[in-house]
Amino acid sequence: MELQQAANEAMAYLDSVGVAAEYEIRMYDYKTDQLMVFTDDYITGTHSSMPDDSIRMFIDNIKEQYPQKSPA
Length: 72
Prior knowledge:
Blueprint: H1 3-16, E1 22-29, E2 32-38, E3 43-47, H2 52-65
Antiparallel strand pairs: 1-2, 2-3
Helix pairs in contact: 1-2
């Protein structure tokens, strides 16, 4: 999974649970980019050199921080 795909998935998920967020993809060093996701109370990141399972853990961590709310 590319970082842009991970960012899109994270933003879609956060939007679905009503959490305002922004992201930034920036060059970390000469061969690695970094994805940062910002909310009011949480900042996280991952590097493009990580395997897909690490990016999946990144997304899962966001879902753990902001779980789906059950309907009332």
